[in-house]
């Protein structure tokens, strides 16, 4: 194949700490469109990746050459003065580690790639690039400024602070070539230049333990500046820095008053530079319109106090205070990748007038964010917006489940015409909004819901012949997105919103099929690592905003689960290399501290958290916040984690540890069986979870597997009448385990139930996300969030890997295993997943007489596929019989089907049944 016709699609992306495409170009017919050019990269050895796609089948990369240059001009001349990899014989198109000249702060870098395949050689791709951030502490020339005190505008008793406003004027006489702002505004900030907000990020920066690490944002503000007089303005909100609650210092970590450090780097056309930095020449005030802001309670805004023109030049700030130098937070400065944005605007579906000036808005969907309001009225008119997930029987807001979170925004009109307002430093989890004090007649057009979550692309699609499953999948998407807030929070509505580890071990795995969450969870792994105590203890919440170190296995063990998921789904080995020492330290800590004389892990905190009451009535009004510690759960999970560590040790080059991990696991397997197995064929208390875990995690002796399988089936099919009875732990394994033991029909029954307890029961009772509790509509309101993810368990993994048949066999989908589970009454699935190599598609349908399957496999990958027939003459591919197809090879036959190996490309199979 000629170079100019090799590929119809080639894309490249830059992997900084993770696999997410932060600089990507799209190539169609070898014409490249630059989509992004990230700035603020603070990794000295970033990784480069690219994707190939062509119309031919079985495209395989055989070699590549990467050029990295200091300028576009040199790259155009094919000069890689930063790095020329030379022609490398390799099929690797992901995570190629930059190995060139040492990169320095603020450097601009340009790169391109040429690939050599079994179909021919490509031409050079169009260029992509990135700009380095600030790599060293001394690159920050400014000082931290703020006000470490309360002001009359603050409410010390309730712990609410007014926003801090800071400003600085400067003048330039030269023509500006490049202007870059580097900002650390804690807890939250907005940056303005000459009165205009810079960037589209919201709730920035993302939360961290600010004593350990601080995320800075880098903004290209060149277009906002020219020679002349200018002003910088920064508003500081509280965020997680000034904690939402101050009353329990033994439990809730707070970091002090809001503060900031920033610098504006100006590069002029004559080559000279200038830095505008934070120092005590800045001026500040708390007497602005944002009189209170708090993530739990909302935001108060008095438009009468607006500081008109405060971020413009020549503003009269003589009453403002001189900014004070303050202590730095202590954490390392790190560039932020994705942050939060307003990702979608949502119109109300209805508005109901309850009384004069009081309305109830229904957005038809539970989500997280805020409301943008348009209003006209007399000066001093106060409008209140209260947020809730559901209504009482008489149509009023139900807020009891918010605990003491006020979830309320206040707006006072300045008068004089139409006013449009939305908060800056809060968010709410809601479907309904009560608007009171609204002047005149309110309509739906006066309000817009703003859906806020991390700017993460979607990766998967799933549509099937079962409308309930489709709806559950949709509810899962909304719930996951709602709880992506720079950290994976448990819920977005009540006075919690904490990144509990126990909610995410398998849920995050399923989430990856819906969202490109690799950057997001890589950042969270670092939050967990930095929360580790010197002796090895890991927290239940990370960052440890709540000081919970309960030393159980199943919550902190999520650290290993997430690392494993990221490696499995993305192939990013550096994840394991970086975190292996901390994971090993925790594993040793737990074994030494909590292993009994019989080899059983004696410590657990939560048990099978939130398992469903026997009936919906049995749980009515009951508080679910009860712990049932389980040594069986602790020990089985620890055994599973030992197996993980044995794999990790080899992958990271510490193979000498493997024997130790495997030896410990082998002993624990025997001890577990002795302690928990009963000759009647069950484990532990004979609960569904107690039986699922040994089966799922490989703790069952071969001679006992059939007995245990029968017992699991008996519990689900007979005792539960086709329902689950699992809490957070058991639900992580139930769908895949039932499928593995040959009862995918029972898994399907669980997935499609509409009666309690089930995901379908949630839908039948009005859920548009996923509830915290199976009986969330009747449980005590102290703990019944209507927007959680923990009870998703392994449902999403099962939908994509088993029903759709999209599963990685090796190296992050470089080999895909495709065996869709065909269930009676389930006739069609159309699913896709954007892997690091490209999009995998699986679209199958069946009737009484035929099975049809459309498959798309990305270039530079291959697949092993299962067709449900052993009669090869019954198979058509693209309307042709299988005869000497070089891209389709028989691997093996089983009792009811045949495995084939196929190369990349598009295939259409049709089988007569």
TrEMBL record:
Residues 458-802 form the Alpha-L-rhamnosidase six-hairpin glycosidase domain. It catalyses: Hydrolysis of terminal non-reducing alpha-L-rhamnose residues in alpha-L-rhamnosides. It comes from the Bacteria. The keyword Magnesium does not apply. Keywords: Glycosidase, Hydrolase, Signal. Residues 805-874 form the Alpha-L-rhamnosidase C-terminal domain. Residues 353-453 form the Alpha-L-rhamnosidase concanavalin-like domain. Gene3D superfamilies: 1.50.10.10, Galactose-binding domain-like (2.60.120.260), Immunoglobulins (2.60.40.10), Maltose phosphorylase, domain 3 (2.60.420.10). Its EC number is 3.2.1.40. InterPro entries: 6-hairpin_glycosidase_sf, 6hp_glycosidase-like_sf, Alpha_rhamnosid, Bac_rhamnosid6H, Bac_rhamnosid_C, Bac_rhamnosid_N, Ig-like_fold, Rhamnosid_concanavalin. Residues 1-23 form the signal peptide. Residues 174-338 form the Bacterial alpha-L-rhamnosidase N-terminal domain. GO terms for molecular function: alpha-L-rhamnosidase activity. It is an enzyme of class 3 (hydrolase). PANTHER family: ALPHA-RHAMNOSIDASE (EUROFUNG), ALPHA-RHAMNOSIDASE (EUROFUNG)-RELATED. This is alpha-L-rhamnosidase. It comes from Sphingobacterium zeae. The lineage of its organism: Bacteria, Pseudomonadati, Bacteroidota, Sphingobacteriia, Sphingobacteriales.
């Amino acid at each position: 194949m000629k170079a100019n016709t090799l590929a119809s699609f080639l894309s490249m992306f830059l992997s900084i700490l993770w696999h997410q495409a932060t600089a990507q170009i799209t190539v169609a017919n070898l014409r490249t469109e630059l989509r992004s050019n990230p700035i603020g990269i603070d990794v000295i050895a970033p990784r480069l990746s690219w994707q190939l796609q062509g119309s031919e089948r079985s495209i395989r990369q055989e070699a590549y050459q990467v050029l990295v240059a200091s300028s576009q001009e040199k790259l155009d001349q094919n000069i890689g003065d930063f790095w020329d990899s030379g022609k490398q014989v390799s099929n690797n198109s992901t995570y190629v580690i930059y190995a060139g000249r040492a990169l320095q702060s603020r450097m601009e870098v340009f790169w391109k790639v040429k690939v050599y395949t079994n179909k021919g050689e490509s031409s050079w791709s169009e260029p992509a690039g990135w700009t380095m951030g600030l790599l060293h502490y001394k690159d920050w020339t400014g000082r931290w400024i703020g006000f470490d005190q309360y002001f009359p505008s603050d409410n010390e008793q309730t712990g609410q602070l007014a926003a801090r406003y800071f400003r600085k004027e400067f003048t330039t006489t030269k023509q500006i070539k490049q202007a870059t702002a580097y900002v650390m505004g804690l807890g939250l900030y907005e940056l303005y230049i000459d009165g205009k907000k810079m960037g589209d990020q919201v709730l920035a920066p993302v939360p961290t333990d600010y004593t350990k690490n601080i995320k800075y944002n880098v903004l290209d503000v060149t277009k906002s500046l020219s020679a002349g007089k200018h002003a910088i303005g920064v508003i500081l909100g509280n965020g997680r820095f000034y904690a939402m609650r101050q009353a329990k210092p033994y439990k809730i970590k707070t970091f002090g008053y809001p503060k900031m450090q920033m610098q504006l780097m100006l590069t002029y056309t004559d080559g000279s530079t200038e830095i505008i930095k934070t120092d005590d020449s800045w001026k500040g005030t708390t007497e602005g319109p944002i009189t209170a802001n708090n993530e739990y309670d909302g935001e108060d805004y008095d438009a009468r106090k607006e500081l008109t023109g405060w971020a413009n030049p020549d503003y009269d700030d003589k009453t403002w205070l001189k900014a004070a130098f303050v202590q730095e937070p202590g954490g390392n400065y790190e560039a932020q990748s994705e942050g939060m944005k307003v990702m979608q605007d949502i119109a109300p579906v209805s508005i109901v007038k309850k009384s004069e000036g009081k309305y109830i808005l229904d957005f038809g969907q539970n989500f997280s964010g805020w409301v943008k309001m348009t209003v006209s009225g007399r000066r001093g008119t106060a409008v209140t917006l209260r947020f809730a997930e559901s209504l009482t029987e008489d149509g009023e807001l139900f807020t009891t489940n918010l605990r003491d979170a006020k979830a309320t925004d206040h707006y006072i009109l300045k008068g004089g015409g139409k006013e449009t307002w939305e908060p800056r430093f809060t968010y709410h989890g809601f479907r309904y909004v009560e608007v009171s004090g609204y002047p005149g007649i309110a309509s739906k057009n006066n309000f817009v819901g703003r859906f806020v979550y991390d700017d993460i692309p979607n990766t998967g699609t799933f549509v099937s012949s079962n409308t309930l499953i489709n709806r559950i999948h949709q509810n899962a998407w909304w719930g996951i997105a709602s709880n992506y807030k720079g950290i994976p929070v448990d819920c977005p509505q009540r006075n919690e919103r904490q990144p509990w580890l126990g909610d995410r071990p398998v849920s995050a795995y399923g989430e990856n099929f819906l969202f490109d969450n690799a950057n997001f969870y890589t950042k969270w792994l670092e939050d967990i690592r930095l929360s580790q105590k010197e002796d090895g203890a890991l927290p239940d919440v990370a960052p440890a905003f709540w000081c919970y170190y309960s030393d159980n296995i199943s919550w902190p063990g999520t650290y290993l689960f997430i690392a494993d998921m990221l490696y499995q789904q993305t192939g990013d080995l550096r994840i394991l290399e970086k975190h292996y020492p901390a994971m090993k330290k925790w594993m040793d800590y737990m074994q030494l501290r909590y292993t009994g004389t019989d080899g059983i892990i004696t410590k657990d905190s939560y048990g099978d958290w939130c398992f469903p009451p026997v009936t919906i009535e049995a749980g009515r009004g009951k508080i679910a916040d009860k712990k049932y510690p389980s040594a069986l759960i602790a020990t089985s999970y620890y055994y599973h984690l030992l197996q993980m560590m044995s794999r990790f040790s080899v992958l990271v080059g510490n193979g000498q540890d493997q024997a130790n991990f495997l030896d410990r696991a082998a002993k624990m397997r025997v001890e577990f069986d002795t302690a928990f197995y009963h000759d009647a064929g069950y484990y532990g208390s004979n609960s569904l979870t107690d039986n699922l875990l040994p089966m799922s995690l490989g703790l069952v002796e071969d001679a006992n597997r059939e007995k245990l399988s029968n017992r699991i089936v008996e519990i689900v099919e007979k005792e539960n009448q086709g329902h689950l009875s699992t809490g957070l732990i058991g639900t992580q394994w139930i769908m895949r385990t039932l499928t593995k033991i040959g009862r995918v029909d029972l898994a399907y029954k669980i997935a499609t139930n509409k009666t309690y307890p089930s995901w379908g029961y949630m839908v039948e009772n009005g859920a548009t996300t996923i509830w915290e509790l199976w009986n969330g509509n009747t449980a005590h309101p102290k703990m019944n969030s209507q927007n959680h993810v923990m009870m998703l368990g392994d449902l999403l993994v099962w939908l994509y890997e088993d029903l759709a048949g999209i599963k990685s066999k090796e190296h992050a989908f470089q080999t895909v295993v495709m065996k869709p589970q065909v269930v009676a009454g389930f006739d069609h699935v159309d699913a896709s997943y954007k892997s690091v190599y490209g999009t995998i598609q699986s679209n199958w349908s069946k009737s009484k007489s035929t099975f049809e399957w459309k498959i798309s496999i990305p270039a530079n990958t291959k697949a092993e596929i299962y067709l449900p027939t052993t009669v090869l003459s019954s198979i058509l591919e693209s309307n042709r019989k299988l005869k000497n197809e070089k891209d389709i090879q028989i691997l093996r036959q089983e009792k009811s089907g045949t495995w084939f190996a196929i190369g990349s490309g598009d295939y259409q199979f049709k089988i007569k049944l």
